[in-house]
Amino acid sequence: MVHVDPASLSGLPSMIGQDRFQKYLDKCHGDRGRALRLYSWNVEASAAFLGAFAALEVGLRNALHRELSAQASSPSWWRHLQFTGGDDDLIEKALAEIEKRKRNVWTPGHVVAELRFAFWVGLLANRNHARFWEAGLDNAFPHYPTTRRRDYLHESFERLRLLRNRAAHHEPIHARDLMVDHELMCELAGYIDPDLQMWIKTHTRLPTVVAGRNLTLTAARITRF
Fold first, then answer.
1. Quick check: is 88 in a domain?
2. Which tens digits make up the pLDDT trace of 157-208?
3. Is residue 61, in this structure, part of any structural domain at all?
4. Range of the domain at 139
5. In a domain, 93, yes or no
6. Is the residue at 100 inside a domain?
7. Can you tell me the distance from the alpha carbon of 79 to that of 123, in angstroms, rounded to the nearest whole number?
8. Rounded to 10 degrees, what is the CA torsion of 108, 113, 114, 115?
9. Which long-range contacts (CB under 8 A, 24 or more apart) does 18-23 make?
10. What value, to the nearest 5°, has the Cα angle with vertex 150 and ends 146 and 156?
11. Cα–Cα–Cα angle for 86, 181, 91, rounded to 5 degrees
12. Nearest one of 221, 209, 212, 191 to 49, comparing CA atoms
C-alpha cells in the first residue's frame, strides 16, 4: 500500500465537515496541511485508545459479573438483586434489546455484553457502596490497595468512560495527555488481574502513536488506523 500524506488529499476537509475541521485549523493556526495530519493522527490515536480500552472494559465487566453472580448465587443476578432506578432502567433496556434480537435464546453472557459501560461504572458509585461494594463487589479488584477508597476506582473508570465516548464519537482527544490515560488503564487493569494489565501493556499501540505525533504533523510519519 502506498503511503499518502493526508495533506495532499484536497477533498478531505469537505468530507470531515467545516465545523469539525475548523477546530483543527484553529489548533494549527490555519495551516491546512498540518490540520489534516492532526485530524488523521486524532483518528489513529482514538483507534489505539479504543483497542486498549476494549480489553479493560471486558475485563472489568466480567470481574463484576462474577461477583454479582456470587452475591445472587445465580449468573442471572439481575433477577435476584435490587438496583436503584437508574441502574434498573439500564438493565431493562438491555434485556429488551436482547429479547428483540434473540427471542428467548440467550444467556447471561449476552446481558453482560449488552449492558452499557455506564452501568458497570455506576456499580462503583456511592449509591451502591453498602448494597454491592461492601457485600463483596470489592472482590472484583483483588489487587486494589486496602488503604484506598472505592471512590478512586469510580472516578478513574468514569474518566476513561468519558474519554471512550469522545473517541468513539470522533471528537478531538489530541489535547489530552494520552500517556496519563494509558497509564491509568494499565493501573486499573492491574487491580483486576496482572495478566490483563500485561496484555494491555504489551499489545497497545497507543504509546507508539503518541510518540509519533510530532513526526506525523511534519509529514515524516504516516498515520495508520
1. no
2. 999 999 999 999 999 999 999 999 999 999 999 999 999 999 999 999 999 9
3. yes
4. 25-74+116-217
5. no
6. no
7. 16
8. 90
9. 20/170, 23/172
10. 115
11. 20
12. 209
